[in-house]
TrEMBL record:
The keyword Phosphoprotein does not apply. Pfam families: Cation_ATPase. The lineage of its organism: Eukaryota, Viridiplantae, Streptophyta, Embryophyta, Tracheophyta. One of its GO terms (cellular component) is plasma membrane. GO terms for molecular function: nucleotide binding; P-type calcium transporter activity. This is Calcium-transporting ATPase. InterPro entries: ATPase_P-typ_cyto_dom_N, HAD-like_sf, HAD_sf.
Amino acid sequence: MTSDKANHFRKYIEDMAEQSLRCVAFAYRNLDPKDIPSEEQRINWELPDNDLTLIGIVGMKDPCRPGVRDAVELCTNSGVKVRMVTGDNLQTARAIALECGILTDPQASAPVIIEGKVFRAYSDAEREAVADKISVRP
């Protein structure tokens, strides 16, 4: 895949992530039947993941459960700071946090929303200084 095509698809994925859609790509690769191990041997076989042909990208909505936004608002009004830690990418985490009311500013950036790898790279003193400011950590 050319760099231009990869950037084109990456943009679609980022746009979907910003709408709190979880993205799944579908691809295939033709295999010669002689290269496929027997059923008994497949237990440790890893499917080849190179030379794939992309056939589609799907964005799936995983909406907040009913009552989450109200619960976040109740906590916030009671003086409890709600924080979100997730395995989602930064754009998806931001969109979900906005949907749930954890974030109110769509332009929020570090340290309010911070990736775990960035936070872990901080010194102990730096982590201590920003810990209270963090609302979302993907």
